[in-house]
Amino acid sequence: MTGSPLIRALDRGAVWFVLVLAAVGILVPLLNLLLPESSPWHVPTYLVALWGKYVCYALLALSIDLIWGYCGILSLGHGAFFALGGYAMGMYLMRQIGTRGVYADPIRPDFMVFLNWPELPVYWYGFNHFAYAALMVLLVPGLLAFVFGWFAFRSRVTGVYLSIITQALTYALMLGFFRNNFGFGGNNGLTDFKDILGFNVQAQPTRAALFAASVAALILGFLICRTVVASKLGMVLVSIRDAEARTRFLGYRVENYKLFVFTLSACMAGVAGALYVPQVGIINPSEFAPGNSIEAVIWVAVGGRGTLIGAVIGAVAVNWGKTTFTSGVLAPYWLFVLGSLFVLVTLLLPRGIVGTVKHYWRVWHERREVVAAERAEAAPKPAE
Amino acid sequence: MDAHTTSALLYLDAVTVSFDGFRAINDLSLTIEPGEMRAIIGPNGAGKTTMMDIITGKTRPDKGDVFFDGGRHDLTKLDETQIAELGIGRKFQKPTVFDMHTVEDNLRLALKGDRTARATLVWRETRDEQVRINEILATIRLNAVRSRVAGSLSHGQKQWLEIGMLLAQDPKLLLVDEPVAGMTDVETHQTAELLKEIAKVKTVVVVEHDMTFVRELGVKVTCLHEGSVLAEGTIDQVSQNDRVVEVYLGR
């Protein structure tokens, strides 16, 4: 372990992965925009939007893998940070509608007019500016994670107890956001978006650009995670995961380390949510549903926790499966498929897809080294 | 004796702790002088490990004083991390190394240095750190396996690695809980040599069951029983004590 943290972060696997992601992020929008629909290489717009959604899920999975795979914090409420980021973006998009809404009010979104609210609540101020909304995308999930983590980690809440209170957190937020007087559109949530930064959200070029932006965010998120886990801080995280008490006796402030990654991870989840909302066109309280957060953990488990690349692959693979299964004769059985997938992965593939590949690669490599060493041993030694 | 004027590195006075009414430590008093090496023996449940827990801040005593470094620090008011920062290192009864890290990385993590999250994020290894790690690897005889993951080491090697991690922390006081449990005779002998070497420059408290090993250390022995000191002195004095024979060594 030498060299600067950034150089350490970019091992061969990471470089390849970033290159593949970049290629996808550039090629898919180009194949969509430049080729005529008749071309066999043309990527239809609906696929761009669908894959864009997967990319956002992949970023959410990455944020979960950072805390679960490397620090042993199993958050079953990460969907909450994703949804909060989504709501922050949704609020910006709502304020962009302006007079084009059903009630044509220049300031208040439709649901406020409908509920007879005389004016815009204070916490909606500023969301007409993209920069402010973008800041909130990071700040709101980050701040919640910081405060939540501050209390949880200081009180040494770990393991299943922490998982349960993260579930409670997202459930409580869901109930809150369902209420009309909470000020976020109640159970309808925020929808009917028109523009983002002056471009029509429905337009083909905007969708292509959103896809590229999502991939860029995923690459950035991956690089941040790699830098963290390849640093000495990453070593401490793994130590906390494997032997928390031992790490404490070595003199490391375990709660500070946990707080750092937990907050970082929540910010990443928030960005994922913010990119997700304009691509699906709606954000509502069901995004806070505890089941969503659990599903995201399953993606990571399937792909292989503690591998980062696995989280991305798991998220895309499981969601691709979900799309395939829920749009055919098998639709009613999707939850059974998901459930059995989790059971089977836990029983047969506890390292996940990428973890298993890595493991056998290492075993094969070590065996080859041993054989080489034995051969060198057997060979006559040169005269000294 | 007033705790604040003591010269002792570690000073325990009338310490009592109970778990659900069971007095694990009962009016225990013990002083360790700077530079001393002390062996602690006693039957199972005598409170040896609980005593370690109190010194390292894992358990808070119900009553009594625990002072460190000539009475300068009241250990009952500090947590594990603060106590570790003061310079008390601990080796656990069951060897606990970081299985997923290499031998070298285990030492790197233990090596004295800035422990804040910010410092570890931008950390780069210095020349001094490399030199120190090589020295420790030589001392604990694990140079050949330095890049193997610690989880693949033998039991004895893990014990040594943990002692090496203690050294890397460069503490003032080393608490070593059962360092030779599960070791072969040769390994036990080597460990005794290693600890004697360390004791030349450090203050060491060793908890151990293995009487041959304790005899080999040749230091002052304290025998605990039911949470308090039963006998103290040289190994010969202690092992001839009637009460010690009765409760611990057996007739």
Structure, briefly:
The complex is a heterodimer of chains A (384) and B (251). By secondary structure, chain A is mainly α.
**Strands of the largest sheet of chain B, in order across it?**
6-7-8-3-9-10
| Low-pLDDT residue intervals, each spanning 5 or more residues of chain A | none
CATH architecture of the largest domain in chain B, by name, is 3-Layer(aba) Sandwich
The share of residues in helices of chain A is: over 70%
> Number of DSSP helices of chain B?
10
**What's the CATH class label of the largest domain in chain B?**
Alpha Beta
Q: Topology, please?
A:
The complex is a heterodimer of chains A (384) and B (251).
Chain A: H1 5-9, H2 12-33, H3 45-71, H4 78-97, H5 110-114, H6 130-154, H7 159-178, E1 190-191, E2 195-196, E3 199-200, H8 204-230, H9 232-242, H10 244-249, H11 254-280, E4 282-283, H12 290-303, H13 309-326, H14 334-348, H15 352-378
Antiparallel strand pairs in A: 1-4, 2-3
Helix pairs in contact in A: 2-8, 3-8, 3-11, 3-12, 3-13, 4-6, 4-11, 6-11, 8-9, 8-11, 12-13, 12-14, 12-15, 13-15
Chain B: E1 10-19, E2 22-32, E3 37-41, H1 48-55, E4 63-68, E5 73-74, H2 80-86, E6 88-91, H3 103-110, H4 117-121, H5 127-139, H6 155-169, E7 173-177, H7 185-199, E8 203-207, H8 211-217, E9 220-225, E10 228-233, H9 235-240, H10 242-249
Parallel strand pairs in B: 3-8, 3-9, 6-7, 7-8
Antiparallel strand pairs in B: 1-2, 1-4, 4-5, 9-10
